[in-house]
């Protein structure tokens, strides 16, 4: 059985990092992260709060310097070419408070537009209307959700080749989240764009994602195309004999396991036919196998490998 994949095949990359390491004092944020985002992909980087997602994105944009390793995007070295790289990126930061809080939103957008040759005023107007952005209010007086919608417009309107969005739906109500995700999907369909989106709300990105990376405690546990993830990661419900101790053939491939008496529920990475055969050979009677949603897969991959009981 193969271990979880951590490298993607292919030659056309929008983002590539190698051995990224970063600590803040005694706190280790990243532990040798090799992140690869294919050109034109919608790559979702998932992980709990504190996993290192924001640190990785900040290093990619040269907003934070790594202790070791290298980060490249759009053919540019993040450390050497930071300003040139940021000029080609639409960025929504995790933080929503900006020093420009005294500016009205309409003035903030005009100011922002001066820095981007491809700023599209017509597209800006459409996005403002679609996302219900209050142009006549001062940015610092906006609600959390309103400020986030302004940031999303500013990220999209110059149609950059790379979008880097850090928890982009944070602060949005359910209707605004739905509208924002629809806008992102339409933007991706209309303009040649690579999307790297960091979130812990995986279910929201199900319609967008074609690649997923899982970051936990500063380590990249896996990165994989979504179609391969849904094919290879399955949940197996089986009955086992008394005293059953598992099977060595699946060592390293069982992502999550739970047991209640003679009933087991294992989430396993591998070809279904092979996993079934290995379980059967070890004495288990497989009763059901099912694919996981993106959120279920993320939860399993982020777990410590054990669940306290058999789940439904």
Quick overview:
This protein has 312 residues and is α/β, with parallel strands linked by helices. The protein is built from nine helices and 15 strands. The chain has a six-stranded mixed β-sheet with strand order 7-8-9-4-10-11, sandwiched between helices. Strands 1, 2, 3, 5 and 6 form a five-stranded antiparallel β-sheet that branches. Strands 13-14-12-15 form a four-stranded antiparallel β-sheet, sandwiched between helices.
Give the helix level as a range of percent. 25-40%
Q: What is the first-to-last residue Cα distance?
A: 26 Å
Q: Got a strand count?
A: 15
Q: Rg from C-alpha positions?
A: 22 Å
CATH topology of the largest domain: Rossmann fold
Note poorly predicted spans.
308-312
Class computed from helices, strands and strand pairing: alpha/beta
Strand order of the largest sheet: 7-8-9-4-10-11
* CATH superfamily heading of the largest domain: P-loop containing nucleotide triphosphate hydrolases
Largest beta-sheet characterization: 6 strands, mixed
Form type: elongated
The portion of residues forming beta strands comes to 25-35%
How many distinct domains?
2
Element-level helix/strand string: EEEEHEEHEHHHEHEEEHEEEHEH
Overall mean pLDDT stands at: 92
At the first level of CATH, what is the class of the largest domain? Alpha Beta
Would you identify the CATH architecture of the largest domain?
A: 3-Layer(aba) Sandwich
Q: What is the count of DSSP helices, taking H or I runs of 4+ residues?
A: 9
């Amino acid at each position: 059985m193969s271990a979880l994949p951590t490298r993607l095949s292919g030659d056309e990359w929008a983002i590539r990092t190698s051995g990224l390491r970063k600590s803040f004092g005694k706190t280790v944020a990243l532990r040798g992260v090799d992140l690869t985002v294919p050109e034109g992909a919608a790559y979702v980087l998932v992980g709990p709060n504190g996993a290192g997602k924001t640190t990785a994105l900040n290093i990619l944009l040269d907003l934070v310097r790594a202790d070791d390793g290298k980060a490249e995007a759009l053919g540019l070295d993040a450390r050497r070419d930071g300003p040139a790289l940021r000029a080609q990126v639409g960025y929504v930061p995790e933080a929503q408070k900006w020093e420009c809080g005294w500016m009205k939103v309409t003035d903030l957008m005009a100011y922002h537009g001066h820095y981007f040759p491809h700023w599209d005023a017509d597209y800006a107007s459409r996005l403002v209307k679609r996302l219900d952005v209050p142009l006549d209010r001062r940015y610092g007086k906006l609600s959390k959700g309103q400020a986030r919608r302004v940031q999303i417009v500013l990220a999209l309107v110059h149609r950059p080749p790379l979008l880097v969005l850090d928890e982009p739906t944070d602060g949005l109500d359910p209707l605004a989240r739905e509208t924002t995700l629809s806008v992102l999907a339409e933007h991706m369909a209309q303009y040649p764009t690579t999307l790297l989106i960091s979130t812990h709300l995986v279910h929201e990105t199900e319609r967008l994602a074609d690649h997923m990376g899982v970051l936990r405690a500063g380590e990249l546990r896996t990165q994989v195309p979504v179609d391969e993830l849904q094919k290879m990661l399955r949940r197996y419900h089986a009955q086992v004999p008394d005293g059953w101790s598992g099977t060595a053939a699946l060592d390293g491939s069982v992502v999550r396991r739970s047991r209640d008496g003679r009933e087991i529920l294992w989430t396993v990475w591998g070809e279904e036919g092979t996993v079934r055969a290995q379980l059967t050979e070890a004495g288990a009677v497989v009763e059901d196998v099912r694919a996981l949603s993106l959120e279920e897969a993320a939860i399993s991959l982020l777990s410590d490998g054990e669940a306290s009981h058999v789940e439904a």
